[in-house]
Amino acid sequence: MGKDIQNMNVDKKFNFNFEVGEPKQKNNIVVFFLSSKEHTNDDLLSFPYAMKNNLAEVQEVNEKGSIGNLKLSNKSDKKLLVLGSEILIGNKLKQDRVVDETVIIPENSTTTLRVSCCEKNRWSPAVSENISLSQTLLFSKARTNNADDIYNSKYNKADQFRVWEDIDEKFEEDETRSFTNSIEEIYKKRRNNVEEIVKYFSPGEDDIGVVLGIGSRLVSMDIFSSNKHLTDYLPRLIRSVALDSFKKTGYKTFLKTKDVYKFLRLVEHSDKRIYNCKTESLGDYLRFNDRFVTGAVLTLERKTIHFYASVKELSTPPDYKSKVA
After folding, report:
1. CB of 50 within 8 A of CB of 56?
2. Residue 324 forms part of a structural domain
């Protein structure tokens, strides 16, 4: 799809133009890299880079605070890419938050960032200037549910109660304890095992996207406008999936490239809606959803900036035929 899913047409059809690499596996985590020979100049800053270099500032919207909103200032002269499911942590905030959906923030501007709480037992005044991005995105199951809820929401908003339910379920599953129910504690507990997986995978210079699987089940697909952004976000994407189901295993996955093409066909056959950004952020969304897949494409000036798709759990997708596979 090089730069063509990349071109989202008014008829809501995708033009996928990329090569699917052979599967690579570490423990039970499986990676397919997606490559394109079409290279574009992408001068958007990634959120991790901007936060690390003090080019972005995040704070509560006011002294009272609002669970579902934060104030984000882009202090650079470049547009800022903030990925859905990025987690903001630290005592500068009244509680940790997770970004609802991928957004593009204009250069030298301040906007309201839509977020959800991912630390439900804390609502405290700022006790320090400590704030940072977590090294992981929200775990993949909750990421899928957020996309599903945003599609079905009248206000294009994640369901806060479902976010809390997903996190509570994850704490029970992992037998992890946290006084404030901060999702960050789950990553800390699993860090050593997860980082062993992260270090194993590295994208090639033509890679712009990645499909991730657990065992012999596909989980998610993320495609970016440049190799640079894939490289920036790949570790966080892998952590998101590894946190959902980490197992050391010697079993080889049954997943093949044809399964990725089936995934793409499911996206093509799903229900779709186009939304024009009417907020302080930039770009247009095409959101898609049905019983089998969910996700969204964010485009700017007809170029895809971020494509995210997820396979819903416990679904048995139809076997759509295609010349590709």
Report:
1. yes
2. no
User: Residue 1 domain-assigned?
Assistant: no
SS3 per residue for 75-100: CCCCCEEECCCEEEECCCCCCCEEEC
The pLDDT tens digits for 162-212 are 999 999 988 888 777 777 878 888 888 888 889 999 999 999 999 999 999
Rounded alpha-carbon distances, angstroms, from residue 114 to 12, 88, 174, 236, 268: 26, 12, 28, 20, 28
Lookup result for tokens 């006084």: 179
CA distance 94 to 97: 9
Evaluate whether residue 150 is within a structural domain: yes
For 278-290, write each residue's pLDDT tens digit: 667 899 999 999 9
Give the closest residue to 27 by CA, choosing from 171, 212, 183: 212
CA atoms within 13 A on the CB side of 226: 11
| The length of the chain, given as a count of residues | 325
The total number of structural domains that make up the chain: 1
pLDDT value of residue 12? 57
